[in-house]
Amino acid sequence: MNLANRNLVTIDDLSNGEIEALFSLADEMANSPNEQSGLCQGKIMASLFFEPSTRTRLSFEAGMLRLGGRVISAVDIGASSLAKGESIADMAKVLGSYADIIVIRHPWEGAARVVADYAGVPVINAGDGSHEHPTQTLCDFYTIRKERQTVKGLRIALWGDLKHGRTVHSLIYALARFGATILFCPGPGLEMPEHVLRRLSTEYKGELQRCRDLNQEPERRLFPIDAIYMTPSSPHQLAMLPDISIRVELKAGVDALYVTRLQKERQAPTVEEQELKKGYPVVDKKLLKGKEFKKTLVMHPLPRVDELTHELDADPRSMYFKQAAYGMPVRMALLALLLGAKEVTIPEEEDSFVRKIDYPVYKRDSGVKCPNRNCVSNQETEVRYIKPEFKIVSREPLTLRCVYCDHELHPRYVASSEWHQRKLESKKYHSADSHFAWKINPENLIIFASEKEAQAQQFKPSSYARQ
Ligand code: NCD
Asked: Which of 48, 121, 164, 373 is the most buried (most CB within 10 A)?
């Protein structure tokens, strides 16, 4: 199968079978990295890193050079025309005429999607704000596969800044898709965002359970689990006895502990860094003496700061330098596939852990904005070309998901385009919580950010407007 001209903006852009096939190609690249120089000759990769990077950028660039291609790069937003107020879309169109493939890291969530929408060449997301980092997930998975052969049925603990870390946001969807059980171990105030957990619990077949009570116990303070996602392939039933199930799960051991650093550059300015650092959980020799960590792979996307002690580097359980090293063959395989230099056979998919849901999409420009200030749809100085677009993921309560950054929105007021087109006096808006509102067909739905917004568009309150 040919993956030429595809984008990798979110980890969901690749199916499980495609990821498996990519890994087989990565094995080939790893076995003979010096024999690949004929594959991408004459091709140019644009490498745009508008946030700091060492591993991701240099493994992409080294990978492209080993494939025989060439690299052009921009690493400072201040030195590019974006600083002059150029839109991301214009930059993407121009670069699409210079390069055959674009790799972009950008501080705004959804920026890579906008580049993919306009470039006309394949685009790879190398990290967009706190949103996603799909190629890091490929490296993480490749590492787990090398050490444990399969991800299915493994217990993987995610540790640290789960709120702002983009690596864990891509990773959990992939773990759920491949049938892993996930333990969430955040630093205080750094829990996985609600919209990510909701997506996990509605779109995958496993069971999500919060376990805040468990953290009161002294033994749990060392290992601060606040939620668990149990894959359907697990023999336990969470809903009945969550704390007992977790204990049973932990007894069997943690297969991988995925540590992340405090993303200090993404904290709200009001939050004291010193405060967050104080309670930030540290992985050290003492913690790893616990029985549940006997055979644990200790992983980290790097860079590490203080959350993972150097005394562990020589420990055979430590995987982080391997993870970084695998970046090159994995990214070589990805470049070769998206540039159409290699074809692969996609293996048949095993049991699916995903619920297939086709959400209706809301595209009307009725003044509603994504609530995430760091979303590309709120950040561009000239945003008129970025049309707000949301998936309607729930009707009761009405919940919309931004297609750029995945943040959720609960609009308070709605109307139907059907009614007002027929009679002007029936141009009414309703509370989004009213049963009347739930009956509106998605294609007729109009949402408003406020009553003022509805009235500005000549809608009058219905008797269901103030419920
Ligand atoms: C990660 C990132 O940039 O999100 N680094 C990486 O790509 N390996 C993790 C981090 O910066 O903490």
From this structure: 48
By alpha-carbon position, which residue is closest to atom 8 of ligand 1? 301
Give the Cα-Cα-Cα angle 179, 180, 184 (nearest 5 degrees): 140
Shortest-distance atom of ligand 1 to CA 55: 8
pLDDT bin (cut points 50, 70, 90) of residue 78 is confident
Residue 174's closest CA among 137, 149, 201, 148? 137
| Residue 350 forms part of a structural domain | no
State both tokens at 413. Answer: 């007021």
Specify the CATH number for the domain of residue 413. Answer: 2.30.30.20
What digits encode the pLDDT tens for the residues 269-308? 777 778 878 889 999 999 999 999 999 999 999 999 999 9
Same domain, 121 and 139: no
Ligand 1 centroid from CA 182, angstroms: 20
Atom of ligand 1 nearest to the CA of 56: 7
Interval between CA 189 and ligand 1 midpoint (Å)? 20
At residue 66, φ and ψ (nearest 5 deg) are -65, -25
Residue 450 lies in a domain: yes
pLDDT at 237: 58
State whether 41 and 164 are in the same domain: no
* Lowest-confidence region among 87-101, 181-195, 236-250: 236-250
Structure tokens at 184: 């969430």
Residue 66 lies in a domain: yes
State how far the alpha carbon of 196 is from the alpha carbons of 24, 359, 408, in Å. Answer: 30, 16, 9
Ligand 1 atom with least separation from CA of 133: 4
Residues lining ligand 1, CB < 6 A? Answer: 55-56, 127, 133, 136, 166-167, 260-261, 301-302
- The pLDDT of residue 19 is 97
CATH of the domain at 302: 3.40.50.1370
User: Per residue in 428-448, pLDDT tens?
Assistant: 999 999 888 888 999 999 999
